[in-house]
Amino acid sequence: MRLEELPTPCYIVDEELLEKNLKILNGVRERTGCKIILAQKAFSMFKLYPLIGQYLNGATASGLYEARLGYEEMGKENHVFSPAYREDEIDEIVEICDHIIFNSFSQVEKFKDKVLKAGKKVGVRINPECSTQVGHAIYDPCAPGSRFGVKQEHFRPDLLEGISGLHFHTLCQQNADDLETTLNAVEEKFGPWLSEMEWINFGGGHHITREDYDIPLLEKCIKRMQDKYGLEVYLEPGEAVALNAGFLVTTVLDTLENGMEIAILDTSATCHMPDVLEMPYRPPLQESGEAGEKPFTYRLGGQTCLAGDIIGDYSFDQPLKSGDRLVFEDMAIYSMVKNTTFNGMALPAIVVKDKSGDYEVVHEFGYQDFKMRLA
């Protein structure tokens, strides 16, 4: 299929751009000997897991269903972390996961023996109390009152028997300088126990495939833990795997005027690109400019009843009209994994653009996908 033949709205993941990211990540693996696994919470398009599995060591999950997806579709190393595990799910989690990471020592006491009996690895998430976020407290696991990780004051050396690794995850879309700062805090607070471990997991949030990312500093951080403590190092990026590798194609349904020009699209910020409202951020849009930069400025909004279902203000060389197609960029991550059918909005189709430039519609959604979630 050609781009203009695709149904809208639709997510497109470009296989060539995805592989470009994977090659960068694989380079880090090859130069350092670290292991890199896909954080499925950011990107779970399992159609492309065979390609991802050619370059990465496996996947990590935030609960049972993601763990099952990684187990069934990736078939390599399978890790999981949850703030707390359910009694009715832990047996299956232990069966299908290799590393089970606990958020507290009470959870360790409750489930450790079961994990060790199955021959799997036990880890503990730590909180180094080192906030490197600027202006995004919602994404800061080290914020006061955080429910993530064991602080130094609650660490239990007496319960370390059988625990083979430590995990921390404090970054969000950040560079390696913040990782270096965090490692300093990890060593300061948990250094006495690092040499007792077999592995350490740096978590996610590393924007490794971004153009300005300091890969040499990242590799220096990895080597530091390997050489000083003899640790196997894991990273679990999500965004970096599919950063700038996806698009959302939408059609203009109508235009109107209310103190400014407005265009109604067949997509929705709240339903199809929720990070636009949650982060918040302004997604790149092909062939557009900032408000006022080009002759014709429009506020782009969705079909839902939410007054704030606004994607942003963009300018264009020509007036928009019904039927025009717009292409938003960087729409592979935190989009299809977070979308909703609020107001009965149809979910966007999922499309792969292969290396030859052809488009394949992998999945389309309909009324039953909306209805099946209700009762």
Automatic annotation (TrEMBL):
SUPFAM superfamilies membership: Alanine racemase C-terminal domain-like, PLP-binding barrel
Alphabetized UniProt keyword annotations: Decarboxylase, Lyase, Pyridoxal phosphate, Spermidine biosynthesis
EC number(s) reported in the record: 4.1.1.96
Gene3D superfamilies, per database record: Alanine racemase, Lyase, Ornithine Decarboxylase, Chain A, domain 1
Stretches assigned to the Orn/DAP/Arg decarboxylase 2 C-terminal domain: 50-331
Residues the entry annotates as binding substrate: 239, 275
Taxonomic superkingdom: Bacteria
A GO molecular-function descriptor: diaminopimelate decarboxylase activity
Enzyme class: lyase
Cofactor dependency: pyridoxal 5'-phosphate
GO BP: lysine biosynthetic process via diaminopimelate; nor-spermidine biosynthetic process; spermidine biosynthetic process
Pfam families found in the cross-reference section: Orn_DAP_Arg_deC
NCBIfam families for this protein: nspC
Protein name: Carboxynorspermidine decarboxylase
Organism: Lederbergia citri
Lineage: Bacteria, Bacillati, Bacillota, Bacilli, Bacillales
Gene: nspC
